[in-house]
């Protein structure tokens, strides 16, 4: 046993030394008498007992006295040195933690970090006698803050309850209906970062107004210190009007992000920036891009690059061997619509490459023309070779086999090889010329070279078409217009993403389809430079410049914000650049506070740059956050709410919340109308609504994924004059509500719901990272559609081609009415016998020249048929 200034060091043989600090042991040293030897027993503060034996009897008391003396001396000195720090800690705590304001996490964390060294001293209450009376009181005051992690939370809870009581009258009257308890609490909590997750119909805007009014009423802020942000001009104006009506204030700053950017630029530059007309007119911007591409096509290098792009990179290449099922392969074909330079839709990328090669070389061909000998029978359709060269009477068959004569995983190898042998034999029998190519040649990178050699051997003459001829054909097919539209969209997203041309190149380099992305980026670059040059020449900016320039001015300190409270509505629609602007404003003052209201379940604008992960990972982006959930909806009834919530939560990445409805019903509030005629379905739904309606003010919203689904409203309004019928796309209906909702277009396919349209990889590369969960955003969009209704939702679907969402609702026993509409024009149920071939389609009844048969509803991508209904239930 040895002593040092601050404690006792115990050493044992073959064991590391143990130090017991005097502050831990205090003065609790006890001599334990033995028969031959004494022992020294030390009781530590944390309850441990350490026994040091084998001490001579004449030494034990001396050792204890020595320990007592040294410990007492050390502890006395220690507490004397603490007095200045105790005073500082006390004064800060008395000011910061006095219950008169909400204690923010950064403030508490900084105080604890600064005064952490006092913890051991103030937590030993038995030793506080070494302090004078005043210092002991300081220690007692700060001890709970150092000793109890929940103490600050308890003070905050008391503060919240006090504020709720004090401003009860305000919260009762600020809106038409009193705010809910959750809304009030969200308004009062004053953390540095506040996220309010507000389900559909739970009163997001009311909470925003309630928060702004509370800040003013409580004296936490004046109007010049509050900034309220919305996404669209209409939303900002509506909020401004409601603030004027509810708070009787017209000096509060309510802006869109673009208007805020404009204000920042004006402040720094001393003049209001001029907005380019193309920023306000998408058609004008698209025309500018189109004109630029036409101009660039006068340059041979650009022309050559564009032709090469269309020949090689119009579609993403995926080998058939990469797909495990025919359904998965069909999905790839469906998403990309592989179309040749001659205009045909083909069934594989490799066929498209062969067709384009023939076309470019001036070799006339026909795609899947009937063979010159009729082979049709009751069991098989006529043989149609892949390509026929009429000038030379040559057939080309492209076989999907590898070097080992293996077929893709989803094909029946034996049957396919048998078909290959049959085709070869047929050509041999009728002495017709056949050239064969194979998938493995594409994999080896020699497909067109091998084809060229075989064609030359067969006496085919090549008359390569000039680039101008190819461009004329591309114009006629509308491909140049589509490309121009793509580049115009890329321009918008590129600027919104706050990128540079070099950074675009880096993104392309890292992309899995690198060659294709680099080729597209090269074609985009001069268009972007021309656009920027146009802005410079006209001394104008666009809306994206408003954000990016504002970010630069705020981050550099050229703009100093006076705002201390930033309130953001519809936060789920935030983009990375807007979030960056908000963070830059917050960073200018440690007292700044952020208050965001949004709902990750309703994030539906990724195509415009919105990033749902910023809401879902809010704390990761902004720091410690107080999160509150508004869980009471005043719009839809419990049956709609339960179904919609269950559906959207199938994606485990969505934030969990339970929404309770103020409208309680006992019966199902969602009906499925199964009919092949949308007009019949809409008429049936409106008739049912008409029969239910309580008065003439009943509103009906017909929703669709795409605007072309709009029915003839004038005819419907004439049939049902007492119904207020409107049509909207689901995106446009965000924020709207109606008594009844009819959702149409619930079928599979590119223009179905969910939409199976693919996003061009160049656009996708500029957008926030796509979610792993299939159709995640489309699922949220369907949730938005469902939750527009107050009383009832009608889902219209053709049972023979119902969308995956409808099948999910039916197959998983969601609480929906499926037999409400029966009889002529309505189907009994969804086609429910899976296709044995593609694994994704369903068998439906069809009529052919030989009578009724059953075929896959994915036809023509899947041509599986069977004669008998088998297990098909209609």
Structural notes for this entry:
It is an enzyme of class 5 (isomerase). It catalyses: ATP + H2O = ADP + phosphate + H(+); Couples ATP hydrolysis with the unwinding of duplex DNA by translocating in the 3'-5' direction. With 874 residues, the protein is an alpha/beta fold. It has 33 helices and 26 strands. Strand 2 and strand 3 form a beta hairpin. It is globular, with a radius of gyration of 37 Å. The N and C termini lie far apart (92 Å).
- Subunit arrangement of the protein: single chain
User: What is the helix content?
Assistant: 40-55%
Can you count the beta strands?
A: 26
Please state the overall shape, judged from the principal axes of the Cα atoms: globular
Ranges where pLDDT stays below 50 over 5 or more residues in a row are none
SS strand fraction:
15-25%
Structural class: alpha/beta
**Widest sheet: strand order?**
9-8-14-15-7-16
- Main β-sheet, in a few words? 6 strands, parallel
Mean pLDDT: 91
**Alpha plus pi helix count:** 33
Kindly report how far apart the N and C termini lie: 92 Å
* Rounded radius of gyration (Å): 37 Å
């Amino acid at each position: 046993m040895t002593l040092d200034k601050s404690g006792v060091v115990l050493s044992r043989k073959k064991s590391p030394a143990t130090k017991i600090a005097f502050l831990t042991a205090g003065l609790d040293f006890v001599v334990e008498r033995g028969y031959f030897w004494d022992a020294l027993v030390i009781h530590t503060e944390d309850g441990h007992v350490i026994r040091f034996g084998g001490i001579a009897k004449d030494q034990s008391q001396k050792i204890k006295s020595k320990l007592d003396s040294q410990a007492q001396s050390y502890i006395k000195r220690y507490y004397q040195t603490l007095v200045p720090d105790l005073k500082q800690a006390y004064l800060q705590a008395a000011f910061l933690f006095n219950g008169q304001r909400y204690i923010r996490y950064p403030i508490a964390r900084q105080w604890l970090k600064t005064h952490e060294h006092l913890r051991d001293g103030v937590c030993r209450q038995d030793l506080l006698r070494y302090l004078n009376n005043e210092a002991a009181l300081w220690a007692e005051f700060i001890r709970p803050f150092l000793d109890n992690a929940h103490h600050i939370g308890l003070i905050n809870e008391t503060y919240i309850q006090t504020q709720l009581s004090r401003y009860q009258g305000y919260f009762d009257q600020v809106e038409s209906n009193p705010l809910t308890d959750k809304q009030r609490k969200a308004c009062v909590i004053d953390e540095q970062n506040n996220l309010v997750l507000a389900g559909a119909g739970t009163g997001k805007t009311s909470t925003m107004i309630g928060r702004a009014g509370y800040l003013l009423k409580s004296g936490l802020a004046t109007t010049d210190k509050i900034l309220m942000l919305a996404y669209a001009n209409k939303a900002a104006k509506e909020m401004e009007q409601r603030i004027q009506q509810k708070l009787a204030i017209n000096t509060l700053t309510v802006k869109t992000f673009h208007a805020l950017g404009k204000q920042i630029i004006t402040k720094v530059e001393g003049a209001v920036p001029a907005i380019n007309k193309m920023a306000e007119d998408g058609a004008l911007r698209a025309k500018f891009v189109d004109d630029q591409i036409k101009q660039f096509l006068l340059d041979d290098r650009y022309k050559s690059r564009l032709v090469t792009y269309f020949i090689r990179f119009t579609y993403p290449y995926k080998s058939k061997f990469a797909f495990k099922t025919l359904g998965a392969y069909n999905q790839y074909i469906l998403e990309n619509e592989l179309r040749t330079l001659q205009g045909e839709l083909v069934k594989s990328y490799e066929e498209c490459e062969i067709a384009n090669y023939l076309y470019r070389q001036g070799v006339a061909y026909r795609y899947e023309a009937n063979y010159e000998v009729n082979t049709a029978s009751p069991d098989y359709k006529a043989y149609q070779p892949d390509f026929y060269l009429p000038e030379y009477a040559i057939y080309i068959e492209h076989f999907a086999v590898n070097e080992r004569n293996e077929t893709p995983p989803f094909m029946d190898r034996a049957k396919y090889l048998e078909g290959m042998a049959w085709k070869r034999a047929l050509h041999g029998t009728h002495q017709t010329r056949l050239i064969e190519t194979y998938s493995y040649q594409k994999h080896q990178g020699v497909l067109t070279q091998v084809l060229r050699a075989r064609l030359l051997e067969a006496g085919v003459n090549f008359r390569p078409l000039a680039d101008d001829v190819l461009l004329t054909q591309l114009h006629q097919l509308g491909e140049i217009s589509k490309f121009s539209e793509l580049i115009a969209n890329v321009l918008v997203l590129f600027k919104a993403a706050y990128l540079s041309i070099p950074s675009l190149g880096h993104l392309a380099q890292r992309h899995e389809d690198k060659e294709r992305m680099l080729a597209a980026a090269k074609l985009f670059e001069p268009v972007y430079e021309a656009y920027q040059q146009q802005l410079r020449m006209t001394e104008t900016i666009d809306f994206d410049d408003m954000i990016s320039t504002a970010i630069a001015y705020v981050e550099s300190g050229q703009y100093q914000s006076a705002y201390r409270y930033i309130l953001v509505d519809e936060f789920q629609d935030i983009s990375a650049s807007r979030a960056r602007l908000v963070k830059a404003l917050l960073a200018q003052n440690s007292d700044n506070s952020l208050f965001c209201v949004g709902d990750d379940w309703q994030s539906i604008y990724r195509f415009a740059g919105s990033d749902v992960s910023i809401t879902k990972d809010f704390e990761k982006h902004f720091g410690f956050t107080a999160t509150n959930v508004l869980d009471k909806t005043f719009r839809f009834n419990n049956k709609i709410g339960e179904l919609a919530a269950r559906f959207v939560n199938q994606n485990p990445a969505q934030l969990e919340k339970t929404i309770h409805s103020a409208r309680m019903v006992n019966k199902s509030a969602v009906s499925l109308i199964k009919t092949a005629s949308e007009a019949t379905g809409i008429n049936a739904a409106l008739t049912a609504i008409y029969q239910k309606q309580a008065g003439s003010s009943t509103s009906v919203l017909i929703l669709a994924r795409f605007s072309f689904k709009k029915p003839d409203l004038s005819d419907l309004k004439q049939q049902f004059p007492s119904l207020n019928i409107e049509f909207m796309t689901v995106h446009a209906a965000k924020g709207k509500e109606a008594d009844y909702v009819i959702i149409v277009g619930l079928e599979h396919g590119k223009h179905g719901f969910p939409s199976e349209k693919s996003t061009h990889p160049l656009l996708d590369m500029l957008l926030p990272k796509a979610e792993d969960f299939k159709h995640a955003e489309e699922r949220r969009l369907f949730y938005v559609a469902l939750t527009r209704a107050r009383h009832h939702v009608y889902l219209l679907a053709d049972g023979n081609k119902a969308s995956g969402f409808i099948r999910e609702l039916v197959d998983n026993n969601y609480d929906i009415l499926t037999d409400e509409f029966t009889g002529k024009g309505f189907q009994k149920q969804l086609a429910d016998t899976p296709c044995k071939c593609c694994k994704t389609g369903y068998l439906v009844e069809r009529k052919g020249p030989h009578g009724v048969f059953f075929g896959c509803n994915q036809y023509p991508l899947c041509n599986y048929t069977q004669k008998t209904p088998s297990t098909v239930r209609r």
